[in-house]
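Let us practice reading a record.
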Amino acid sequence: MEFNDRCYRIPKWNARLINGSAGFPFSARRKSTDSLRLQFSSAEIRERISGYEQPLMNTGQPIEGELVSFYVPSPAELAQIRQNEVLSRQQFFDFWYAEGDWTQRTIEPAPVPGLFRVSFFPNGNSWQVLTRIPDMQTRDTHLAKDFWVSSCHDIEGPTRTTCLLRLEQDGIFMDASTPESNLPYREQLGRFFLEKLESWKVACGGD
């Protein structure tokens, strides 16, 4: 399997959803070597990262794998991503600083120590996770690169949550979903995914 101008021999279980799509029928032929979608053992992650919470199915049974999408943008695509990041800050400015239509937004410490929940509505079932409370005087807190952490929502009640995990490490972008309690381990998770991928690296053109 080629990805990012390198070649990998990936175990069948990890690669079985490599052609998966976001919607039905959940399969689509892989069209580019700049992207990759793999599955990683949740049990193995739990063994490697102390405190990691294994996601659960609706039945309460552990989900066996974390799905991770990898993407390496071209220089033009990377420039567009940076521009979109700036536009996103502008889009959510009123929300973060409780202006305009968002004067009723709420902010509170997250269940995860050191992080904060900003909810769109009081007692709402969706929220953003931030590293700090927006400063209502300077109104520049959002300019910090690590300000926004994730967007989350409830799954069948407040005891089960899922959050978007978006990481950028070594020029590779990674997207996954994970319970809110795993957000403190986001950098460790990214490193785990990349190290696992590196362990499958082989010489291109080899048998």
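A brief commentary: The CA atoms of residues 41 and 65 lie 5 Å apart.
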